[in-house]
Amino acid sequence: MIETSFLVDYLSTYPEKIGEWWRADKKKRLSHFGPALIRNALDKRDGYTSGERTRIYHLISELASHASYLGISVMTTTGPDNMAQVGPFFDDEKLASWLGEMALRLSVAAMRMPNPSGRDINLVMAQAHYLEVCQKWWWKYRGVKPQAVP
Amino acid sequence: MRFVNGSANTATGTWDELNRFHRAQLRSLGKLVDNRDQERFFVEYFKLIDFLALAAVAALACAALVRNRSVWLFVAGILVAIWGAMRITGWPEIALEPKLIDVATDNLTSLHKHEEQLRARSLAVIEADAGLSDHWNLVAEAMSAIYAFSHDHPHESEDELTLQYLGIRSMRLVRRSNSHCRGTIRRRSTSFAT
């Protein structure tokens, strides 16, 4: 999710790269549009120098995507005894973390979906409504207007 | 799907490779199926012979009773017939020991029920908390916005179509990105008809 949202953010920022991206073979895609390159380009665009995008990307990858001992011990355990669970389970802290992170990442990706010509009135209205909801949330929980988050 | 040039060739090549792989898998599976059919035929064949033998034993027992007035031979014959019938039909093992495949599919069903219970519990927690409700509402609104762009909006260029694909991918990722709240997402997204 986070990788896709970074890519959407990147391609929306640099629309001239979209054609190059979808025409690229695997070798070119990895060398020109690899996750690290995308993150660095977005950091450069936003003036971030701490590599925060990379830190978050690696953290989420380690916890959720990759088969790591840390990920297993954090994501499959719950309760006061921190017992590993077989199958799905309820954990209010994990639910809150997931939901907060999802709102943060998805809200930006959705905001980057373009409507360049503005001819599609339904899309304009949908995007205007979304922007309003999104701005309220960002002001309330992030204290800023919607922006690219590292 | 687009895939008309550039990545089209790559994509087509990849699909061809995958198809070749799966065809090979199916071919080897086909041999297995054939072998199983043969095995099934022999099992049924011998079962039929066993039934005929049992019928003969029962007939002999009846004949022993009628001709020689030998009750014990009759009883012994009937007992042998009952025992043989039980062995052939598998009873009572079928009733006492459920088949492994039934147990496995039952587990899938109970897993689904458990997910539904977790979904209800997650929803209750989200609804009871103002902050979580706000987050949840934003996720839902974001999905609606992505859907409006990816599904409802007629694309005006190849580049826009590319971003629509990424929007579709985002929708799918949201749905599968979690386990404890998956039910909620799935239920929500069913309204996004394709």
Provide a descriptive summary of the structure in words.
The complex is a heterodimer of chains A (150) and B (194). Chain A is mainly alpha-helical and 150 residues long. Chain A has one domain (2-141). Chain A is built from eight helices and two strands. Chain A has helices at 2-13, 18-23, 26-33, 35-46, 52-65, 69-75, 92-111, 121-141; strands at residues 77-78, 83-84. Chain A has a two-stranded antiparallel ribbon with strand order 1-2. The two termini of chain A are 14 Å apart. Chain B is mostly helical. Chain B folds into two domains: 1-97; 99-194, no CATH class. Chain B is 85% helix and 0% strand. Chain B has seven helices and no strands. Chain B has helices spanning 7-68, 71-89, 93-96, 100-128, 130-152, 158-176, 182-189. Chain B is elongated and about 95 Å long. The two termini of chain B are 14 Å apart. The model of chain B is unreliable at 1-9 and 179-194 (pLDDT under 50). Chains A and B meet through helix 1, helix 2, helix 7 and helix 8 of A and helix 4, helix 5 and helix 6 of B.
